[in-house]
Amino acid sequence: MSDTQSIMSSMVETREFPPPPDFVKDAHIKSIDEYEQLHRQSIEDPEGFWGERAKNHHWFKPHDTVLEWNAPNAKWFVGGKTNVAYNCLDLQIERGRGDHPAILWEGEPGEVVTFTYSELRDRVCQTANALKKLGVGKGDVVTIYMPMVPELAIAMLACARIGAPHSIIFGGFSASAIADRAKDAESKIILTADGGWRRGKVVPLKQNVEDAISQYGGIAKVVVLKRCENDIPWNDGRDVWWHDVVDAESTECEAEQCDSEDLLFILYTSGTTGKPKGIMHTTGGYMVYTALTAKHIFDLKPDDVYWCTADIGWITGHSYITYGPLQNGVTTLMYEGAPNQPDWGRFWEIVQKHKVTKFYTAPTAIRAFMRQGDDIPAKYDLSTLKLLGSVGEPINPEAWMWYHEHIGGERCPIVDTWWQTETGGILIAPIPGAITLKPGSATRPFFGIDAAVVDEAGVEQPANAGGFLVIRKPWPSMLRGVYGDMNRFQEQYWSQLPGIYFTSDACRRDDDGNFWLMGRVDDVINISGHRIGTAEVESAIVSHPTVAEAAVVGIPHEIKGQALAAFVALKSSSTPSDDLKKELLAHVAKEIGAIARPDQLRFTDALPKTRSGKIMRRLLKELASTGEVKGDTTTLEDFSVIASLSADDD
Ligand code: WTA
């Protein structure tokens, strides 16, 4: 564990924004007292609280016990049988939402398609039947590598309907990333598309799948959606067109009665070692928690047109494009492409055209918009917006203020939502009708979340002192493990403090009990709100035949929040050159995806190490961000290394 000394917050932010009276009037939760009373109840009697909330869902059989907690293993709604897709679709139709738009989709080239809840249910059933005919049974992991089209949401719901866990891989990841994940999950089927649109270009998804299969031969079936009509490789025995297998199927498919603890999905995320972790989420707890957080944090109402700009390939898209909003019967908007296609007004044009009421995005996007100028959003009618959200990294107060003023017209509360792939749903965020906002703070924990800031011994820190953010009680949507590696689960999250979930985030709590997140304390870098493990990038670089050793560190970046800097020592048979530098950067993009491509790459003869052989990333970080090293070098083995690195001018 790193030391807390370095976790000092210098941020002093005193601006406060109480809930606007107009917003409070119609809010689900209208006062701080109401929030505090519910929070207290949820902490004192979690089983009573969650047992009651579970009744708002459809269960084939209700639970016998709300929680079985054997740290670190939690079982929620034990003995209950349910189906998440049924709750997202059939239950909404039973509640009278059949003709209401469920998914409102806009493609990058501009097409608009709407699916009502009934239409979506029919399409999900057809797809579920097709999957069954292709041999997918309960418990079989289905890999999904698709663009942001409605069929991506349909595919995940179809899997949920038949009890087949999905493993969705972000469309920006490369062939090797697909192969690694499909292999780790022992998946035999991939759902993909010929391509997807991004900045006016076709992303060759099927080609990437083909390259992945050449690295991992376990894939027996590939279902291909026709999207861009681009030329693709084809294997007759293995590949089928989506429309050929789905369109003729029946629109009835009984929902599988899943156990509350059946695996709903795996989602791979970066950790501190080179190998991504398959985070496991199960059925009942995830269902109840995502529905309740979506309802209260976005204050969802029947007529909301809710837009989360994340990709479904990340946890934000899983929980707050698909499962959370649909369980609340609202319209969830999906957009396929880039924010600057054809120009930087695209998002605001979408808000205006579809009369978006709730808008959820990432600080990196907000900073990019800020940079393009206030006059761009000013051209659009954004008056339908009632609430804004932020996720993925700490939002700097200046970006918060810009978002508040130029997008929210100074009338929309901003919910800064802190959570992780592992937590399944939002853990810390304002309840917008109840909590006074402070720019840069995610404010208060959600119901059932017992969050604390502690030192390395687990002792709770006084107000305003920095420390580690931990969660002291189990919550329904918490991860149930790391796929195929329960040791890593124990080691990574539960070994620092027994029975307490360690988030790896630094934090402080102010006098009013608001949480201020201060970034990661491990070797995970947050680039544009997405987690990249430095070890993963290091192993990608080292896999290049010319490289002997590499170290990768995070450095501050104006738009992306953080960027990567790589230090590379070549084998003696190779010589540094600009061409080789380019080749190594392209190699990282090929191995992991463009998102992991370092912004800086320097060649060095050796890396600074401690006497025990650990690379001193702290020094490299300082060097990469400031150009020199002033920090403590007493444990450094060879001083000349730093001297020679500093002499290098990138
Ligand atoms: C960071 C994304 C500050 C944090 C949902 C966390 C944040 C990691 C916030 C998880 C926020 C996410 N304020 N930091 N509102 N939201 N983070 O798994 O470091 O992609 O541990 O989940 O992002 O990233 P992940």
Provide an overview of this structure:
It is a single chain. An eight-stranded mixed sheet has the order 13-12-9-7-8-15-16-24, sandwiched between helices. The protein has a seven-stranded mixed sheet with strand order 6-5-18-17-19-20-21, sandwiched between helices. The chain has a four-stranded antiparallel sheet with strand order 22-23-25-26. The radius of gyration is 24 Å and the shape is globular. The chain is of the alpha/beta class and 650 residues long. It has 21 helices and 31 strands. The chain folds into two domains: 7-507, Rossmann fold (3-Layer(aba) Sandwich); 541-647, GMP Synthetase, Chain A, domain 3, CATH 3.30.300.30.
Radius of gyration: 24 Å
Please identify the structural class as seen in this structure. alpha/beta
Mean pLDDT: 94
Number of strands: 31
Strand count, sense and closure of the main sheet?
Answer: 8 strands, mixed
Bound small molecules, deduplicated: 5'-O-[(S)-ethoxy(hydroxy)phosphoryl]adenosine
Number of helices: 21
Instruction: Report helical residue fraction.
Output: 25-40%
The CATH H-level homologous superfamily of the largest domain: ANL, N-terminal domain
**CATH architecture title of the largest domain:** 3-Layer(aba) Sandwich
Straight-line N-to-C gap: 31 Å
At the first level of CATH, the class of the largest domain is: Alpha Beta
Low-pLDDT stretches are 1-6
* Strand order in the largest sheet: 13-12-9-7-8-15-16-24
Overall tally of structural domains: 2
Q: What is the molecular shape?
A: globular
CATH fold assignment of the largest domain: Rossmann fold
- Estimate what percentage of residues fall within beta strands: 15-25%
